[in-house]
Amino acid sequence: MKMLIFVSIITLLSTSSFAKERVTITEELIKKEVNNAAPNTLAIEASFLSVDFQREAFEENFDFNLVGSASYYKTSENSFSPQIPVSSPIKAYKVGVEKGLGTGMKIGVNTFSEQMTSSVVNKGTSNGFGLEFSMDLYKNFLGRLTSSQRELLKESVLRADLQKNIQKKAFYQSLRKIYWSLVANNEQLKISQKLLTLSQQQLKDSKRKFKNKIAEISEVSRSESQIADRNSRIINLQYQREVLVQQLKELLPTLSDKELVLGTYSIPKTSKQLFSCIAQISNFNEAPLQYSSYDEILKSLQTEYTHQRKITDSYNRANVQFVSEVKRLGKTEGYSEAWDRFSDDGRTAFSAGVELRIPLGGSSTKSKELQDLLDKKRFISQKEEIVGKVNAYHSQVVKNIHLLQKVIEQQNINSEKLAITLKHTKKKYNQARVSFRDLILDQDALLSSNLLEVQSQLSIITTLLDYFTVYTEMPCDINN
């Protein structure tokens, strides 16, 4: 007996230790989880970072860079004549720092050494320091191309940041839609459970009447059928609830191993906030862009297109580059001796030149034309999509909500009249003036009407939440 008690205790403790943690679902919890590294949130932030990375990668072109090279050359070839000796081996290195400038120029300083041996000289060495300067004379003259590229990337990051915030809020609203679907599901379950209890009571009455030979067996069967139907509806609603819970867990993996239960909520409070917000939105004759980030996105998009056109216009232009170098060096036999010569009798060397590259084929011109067309179509498509969304979401959502309000108004009337009808039908049934079938039909009609009311109310909430994905800053209490 003691062993049995011990095993029971161990089993109970094991079961308790493996029990899932219960988490109460509220809008506050959802908001917290969205900001707590949800996968969708991380993906949205990653998209923004990829754009920001492009900007930072571009700015790398204007950082200081340490550059260097080293080489060794040796040959056993014969010279053409004693007056033209072959130099071998040749050793060389060059180390310096260079920096690109936003003005289309590049500067650099370096130290260098070159040593060679021939039949005339042994370890002839040149040591010194150099200053390099290059400048774009046409395509990127005074940094006009660099400026456009920098401004383009700057606006791209700004637009990406605005879109990131919109997408994060849209993700939050999608989670709120699931939450309010759970609330609606819970309300429908309450209605169905209430009517199931009524059906169970009616079954008891039917069995009592049948036992007393007041009712027929068909009335009992119909009661049992009604209970099965109500149970079926409840099970279906429970299934829908689990599907919604699964969606929530998939979007918020930190809750995936938890038991989720719906927290408390206030339908009257939410309804008050809902209708207050609808009234506020309805007062706007035009799209309230002041409560949306899309107006800023449009401005940024226009600026991007302006700079992109400048970049594309330079696509097939000639590259003309001025390059120059000034050296101060010492030259003699031996490495250390060359540095001594540099200090005592250093000499200056100067070189300058122009590098030119001009596209001669027609491919670059065709590529530029295609790029022009691509830029234009991309800009127009993005602009029209935003304008269409902003206008449609305001004008159409307001119309949709007003229609849904009318639907609910008619459903309320329907439910009210059905409740009156059911009351009289029940009275007539108790007086044996109508059949049990008529009573069930009226009960089912009222049930369907009540369930549709809840569904229509949910449609209004989800429509308004969709509205908040565009007008993210709308100052409504329900837009938390």
What does this structure look like?
The protein is α+β, with helices and mostly antiparallel strands. The chain has 2 domains: 293 residues, Outer membrane efflux proteins (OEP), CATH 1.20.1600.10; 107 residues. Helices cover 62% and strands 17% of the residues. The protein has 10 helices and 8 strands. Helix 2 packs antiparallel against helix 4. The longest helix is centred in the middle third of the chain and has 68 residues. The chain is elongated. The two termini are 59 Å apart.
Write the layout of secondary structure elements.
Blueprint: H1 2-18, E1 22-25, H2 27-34, H3 39-59, E2 64-73, E3 90-100, E4 105-116, E5 124-136, H4 144-211, H5 217-251, E6 259-262, H6 267-282, H7 294-313, E7 319-333, H8 335-345, E8 347-357, H9 363-430, H10 436-468
Parallel strand pairs: 1-6
Antiparallel strand pairs: 2-3, 3-4, 4-5, 5-7, 7-8
Helix pairs in contact: 2-4, 3-4, 4-5, 4-7, 4-10, 7-9, 9-10
Compute the number of strand runs: 8
CATH fold-level assignment of the largest domain? Outer membrane efflux proteins (OEP)
Task: Name the beta content range.
Answer: 15-25%
Query: What composes the largest sheet?
Result: 6 strands, antiparallel
Q: Say which CATH homologous superfamily of the largest domain is assigned.
A: Outer membrane efflux proteins (OEP)
Calculate the terminal CA-CA distance, rounded to whole Å: 59 Å
Q: Any low-confidence stretches, pLDDT <50, length ≥5?
A: 13-17
In DSSP terms (H or I, runs of 4 or more residues), the helix count works out at 10
CATH class descriptor name of the largest domain? Mainly Alpha
Placed side by side, the strands forming the largest sheet appear as 2-3-4-5-7-8
The helical percent reads 55-70%
How many domains make up the coordinates? Answer: 2
Characterize the overall form: elongated
Structural class: alpha+beta
Provide the succession of SSEs: HEHHEEEEHHEHHEHEHH
Rg, nearest Å: 40 Å
**What's the CATH architecture name of the largest domain?**
Up-down Bundle
Can you give the mean pLDDT?
Answer: 86
